[in-house]
């Protein structure tokens, strides 16, 4: 090497450390909004710190952990150059898995993998995550932004997150509490949430050739705006219900659809009967079904069909549950019941009848 030749640099390889540092500075204001009293320190450490001395009030605290991503919905956020809502989806996917067992979400960490760090874009992603954490009542205690040139394109990225919650052992919810005679209550979804986007993109964008800026009268907005509708976060709503009355189980309706996810909290020997006639799916579900010429059972096992969370409660709790959810502006309704398994019923859950409307 001659004296006027320079050696290889990380920047020349496609990794911009200065851009990463700027992204951290931009995101600090959003992360700060998620602070809980138990958070120790701030961003910049090798690990996020959370003071668990508050757990001393529990007789037998169980820590609950969940991790998830957002799937191919990030491709739509990138295509629309709108990055401040995808974090809501990430938080919802994680914390609402925690609350299903009755756990209060305590804190989250995130992982953002990008082809090239655009500081303002990364800050917008973290802004959405932080806002989601505020809605969930949990802290964002740290994360990682990784630049992977050559693996992802300059404008490509993916997000993932992990969360931790706590529940008293004696208050753990699940199939072990569910009994014949219990009532199934549905909580409305805000839209597609964050599951089934490979199907939706295949049907509407690839097969039908619709553009994201297409105005869809049934939606009252563009296709892209409908598809980017953030996931509803139910954790504080569910916790409010558990504090007000007896609940036996929750089911977070994600990939696999309503029946398959509810079946996860129905014990052997019991069956959940769900009535399609109790609600009308949002227009986006009807549109995907019609444009894709999809069979009812096929679309139901992929999309949430307008129900994002389900509660299984004893009959005497129904009025309280509906009242609490109404006070919290969560649309909810009676969806079905739990019965003993009979010759014509399999264990789990199934939908009957036709959709309303």
Automatic annotation (TrEMBL):
Pathway given for this chain reads: Purine metabolism; IMP biosynthesis via de novo pathway; 5-amino-1-(5-phospho-D-ribosyl)imidazole from N(2)-formyl-N(1)-(5-phospho-D-ribosyl)glycinamide: step 2/2
Location in the cell reads: Cytoplasm
| Keyword terms | ATP-binding, Cytoplasm, Ligase, Nucleotide-binding, Purine biosynthesis
Recall the GO molecular function terms of this protein's record: ATP binding; phosphoribosylamine-glycine ligase activity; phosphoribosylformylglycinamidine cyclo-ligase activity
Q: Which CDD domains match?
A: PurM
Q: Does the keyword Lipoprotein apply?
A: no
What Pfam families has UniProt attached to this entry?
Answer: AIRS, AIRS_C
What InterPro entries does the entry give? Answer: PurM-like_C_dom, PurM-like_C_sf, PurM-like_N, PurM-like_N_sf, PurM_cligase
- What's the catalysed reaction? 2-formamido-N(1)-(5-O-phospho-beta-D-ribosyl)acetamidine + ATP = 5-amino-1-(5-phospho-beta-D-ribosyl)imidazole + ADP + phosphate + H(+)
Biological process GO terms, please? 'de novo' IMP biosynthetic process; adenine biosynthetic process
Q: Which GO terms describe its cellular component?
A: cytosol
User: Which Enzyme Commission numbers does its entry carry?
Assistant: 6.3.3.1
Instruction: Describe the location of the PurM-like C-terminal domain by residue ranges.
Output: 179-342
Q: Which residues form the PurM-like N-terminal domain?
A: 62-167
Q: Which family does it belong to?
A: Belongs to the AIR synthase family.
| Name of the protein this chain belongs to | Phosphoribosylformylglycinamidine cyclo-ligase
Q: Organism source for this protein?
A: Streptomyces tateyamensis
Q: What is the lineage of its organism?
A: Bacteria, Bacillati, Actinomycetota, Actinomycetes, Kitasatosporales
């Amino acid at each position: 090497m001659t004296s006027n030749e320079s050696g290889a640099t990380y920047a020349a390889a496609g990794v911009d450390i200065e851009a990463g540092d700027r992204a951290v500075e931009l995101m600090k204001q959003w992360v700060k909004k998620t602070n809980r009293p138990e958070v120790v320190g701030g961003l910049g450490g090798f690990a996020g710190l959370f003071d668990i001395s508050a757990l001393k009030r529990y007789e037998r605290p169980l820590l609950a952990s969940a991790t998830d991503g957002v799937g191919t919905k990030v491709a739509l956020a990138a295509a629309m150059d709108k990055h401040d809502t995808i974090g809501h989806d990430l938080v919802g996917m994680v914390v609402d898995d925690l609350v299903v067992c009755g756990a209060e979400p305590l804190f989250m960490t995130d992982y953002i993998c990008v082809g090239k760090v655009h500081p303002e874009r990364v800050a917008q992603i973290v802004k959405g995550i932080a806002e989601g954490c505020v809605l969930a009542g949990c802290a964002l205690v740290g994360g990682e932004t990784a630049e992977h040139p050559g693996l992802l394109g300059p404008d490509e990225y993916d997000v993932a997150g992990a969360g931790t919650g706590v529940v008293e052992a004696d208050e753990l919810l699940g199939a072990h509490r569910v009994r014949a005679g219990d009532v199934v209550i549905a909580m409305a979804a805000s839209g597609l949430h964050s599951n089934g986007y490979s199907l939706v993109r295949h049907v509407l964008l690839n097969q039908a050739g619709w553009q994201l800026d297409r105005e869809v009268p049934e939606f009252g907005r563009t296709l892209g705006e409908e598809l980017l509708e953030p996931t509803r976060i139910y954790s504080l709503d569910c916790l409010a219900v558990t504090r007000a009355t007896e609940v036996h189980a929750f089911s977070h309706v994600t990939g696999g659809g309503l029946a398959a996810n509810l079946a996860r909290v129905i014990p052997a020997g019991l069956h959940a009967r769900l009535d399609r006639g109790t609600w009308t799916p949002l227009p986006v579900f009807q549109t995907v079904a019609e444009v894709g010429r999809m069979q009812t059972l096929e679309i139901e096992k992929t999309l949430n069909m307008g129900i994002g969370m389900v509660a299984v409660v004893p009959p005497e709790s129904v009025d309280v549950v509906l009242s609490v959810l109404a006070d919290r502006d969560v649309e909810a309704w009676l969806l079905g019941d739990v019965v003993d398994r009979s010759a014509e019923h399999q264990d789990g859950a199934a939908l009957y009848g036709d959709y309303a409307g």
